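hey so i finaly got around to running the thing on Takeout/JHBP like protein from Papilio polytes. pasting the sequence first so u can double check i didnt mess up the copy paste, my clipboard has been acting weird all day
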Amino acid sequence: MYLLLVILCCAVFEGYASNVPLVQPCLLGDSECLIKTNTRIALSRIGYGLPEFGIRSLEPMTLRNITMGADGFRLVFREMNIAGASRCNIEDIQLNFAHSTMSVTLECPLEATGTFKMSGSICFFDVNHEGNYIVKTDSIRTTINSKIDTIYGADGHRYWKLTATDYSYEPLENLHIGLGRLFVGEVTRASPLYNVVSNNWWPLVSRVAEPAVSAAIARFHEVLQTFFLRVPLEHLSK
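ok and heres what it spat out for the 3d tokens, dont ask me to read them lol
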């Protein structure tokens, strides 16, 4: 508990207080409340890393050769640089001890840039194009659901081992997508990412955002896994 409070104080001192959630008052012995509160305090700094727990900074996040495609269409992101994790806010953490599950909801800006190569056919048109791209939104809400297994470490303390079960996301602000000179447009809340319509160019293009979001979610879940494998439950619940 004291280590987590030190992290919170450092965050305020360094001028990042806007990312630190308000501390929820907990009753003595309320383990669920204490675990959620202490976890939110620590994770409010994830974008910059938590070296105390062996967690490196989430920025910059660089990925290479991400491929997507279907029905003769192929899109390769040769390089993908993802930014925005340092400005994430932890909106909510839900624990269900009866079902051994955890749900974490966070809101972040997202900007993915890099190079791409597109080939194949779309809507009966042959496409062969490469260039720079950008996927950007000021706010995207993500919820990650995990299964919890309680394990014992060599030190005799209890830890949580998390396994991701599913996730969901939605842009809260318009999602800007630019594919070089080939396409520039925006996904609004009136045209969800998952609304795939046959023979419609735009829903296919909107899926360009999915690899960036999926990669960021996977990296964040790695952070959650590391955090709960490094911090004993006894420390989080007091």
